[in-house]
């Protein structure tokens, strides 16, 4: 099943032509919404395509073609664009919506498996799927065709997003919930201001540094200069490795200089990536306006999404 559908997707990718570019241009120049419509499995796929378009900067919604025939056509406006899905290209309910919108001068993009169908002929742009059999052993249940429609819808959404220059920040604004929203939050949200910041100066004894580390509970202490700017860090690992000489050492003799840091504006996702790449469990957060001034400290455990 999966190999059959994967082969169909390869054929689909290989046959994309100027019609795809034209469809992207129609979506880009739509001042209203992209109205997606389809019956049966095509309708289910259409709902997902509408959701992906909306999430990537192209406002869209799904309209059920049967409901459209009973008054929901009033939801459509002249500045919209229709994306109609029908594998046969002859679905009566879909054709009704398409003809209504064409009469109103609204552009119609069709995704169909039949280039000679009524839908393909009347649409402004017809994206025709490769002629491949369904993966269903009886060749009936929409399987391969549904997968191709879904992939083509994703391709339209992402190509349009790139053409718009839709940024990471804009994506984050549309995804405030769940793990996506959490990863795009600034690390400033993780700073615990009710805990003391474990900071010491270069001449501080290791005895006092350990007390500060224990009090803060993050397994790290930051070593700052007279201006309060971060020079280095001492971690639990540094203490273990230097245990033999620890009682006679000062902070600057044990610390790791030029440590990895993030600012309060760094996203949680980027902070997690930095810590994973550097193989560290804790990192100081600095003031973006004053380079090197520590304002907080976060542990790898702090990055786990909270409810």
Automatic annotation (TrEMBL):
Ranges for domain SIS: 23-166
One MF term in the entry's GO annotations: isomerase activity
Segments forming domain CBS: 190-249, 255-307
Keyword Isomerase: yes
Keywords: CBS domain, Isomerase, Repeat
Domain of life: Bacteria
SMART domains in UniProt: CBS (SM00116)
Entry-linked NCBIfam families: kpsF
PANTHER family: ARABINOSE 5-PHOSPHATE ISOMERASE KDSD (PTHR42745:SF1), PTHR42745
Protein known as: KpsF/GutQ family sugar-phosphate isomerase
Organism: Sphingomonas qilianensis
């Amino acid at each position: 099943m999966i190999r059959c559908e994967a082969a169909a997707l390869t054929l689909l990718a290989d046959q994309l032509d100027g019609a795809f570019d034209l469809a992207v241009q129609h979506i880009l120049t739509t001042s209203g919404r992209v109205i997606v419509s389809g019956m049966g499995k095509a309708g289910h796929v259409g709902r997902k395509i509408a959701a992906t378009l909306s999430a990537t900067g192209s406002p869209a919604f799904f309209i059920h073609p049967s409901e459209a025939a009973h008054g929901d056509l009033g939801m459509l406006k002249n500045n919209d664009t229709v994306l109609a899905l029908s594998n046969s290209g002859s679905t009566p309910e879909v054709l009704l919506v398409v003809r209504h919108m064409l009469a109103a001068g609204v552009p119609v993009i069709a995704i169909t498996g039949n280039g000679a169908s009524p839908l393909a002929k009347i649409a402004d742009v017809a994206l025709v799927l490769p002629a491949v059999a369904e993966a269903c052993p009886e060749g009936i249940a929409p399987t391969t065709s549904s997968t191709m429609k879904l992939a083509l819808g994703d391709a339209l959404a992402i190509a349009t997003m790139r053409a718009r220059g839709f940024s990471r920040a804009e994506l984050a604004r549309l995804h405030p919930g769940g793990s996506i929203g959490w990863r795009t939050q600034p690390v400033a949200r993780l700073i615990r201001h009710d805990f003391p910041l474990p900071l010491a100066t270069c001449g501080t004894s290791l005895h006092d540094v350990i007390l500060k580390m224990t009090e803060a509970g993050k397994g790290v202490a930051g070593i700052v200069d007279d201006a309060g700017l971060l020079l280095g860090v001492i971690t639990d690992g540094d203490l273990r490795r230097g245990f033999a000489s620890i009682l006679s050492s000062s902070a600057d003799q044990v610390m790791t200089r030029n440590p990895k840091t993030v600012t309060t504006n760094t996203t949680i996702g980027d902070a997690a990536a930095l810590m994973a790449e550097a193989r560290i469990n804790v990192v100081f957060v600095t003031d973006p306006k004053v380079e090197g001034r520590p304002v907080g400290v976060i542990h790898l455990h702090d990055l786990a999404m909270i409810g």
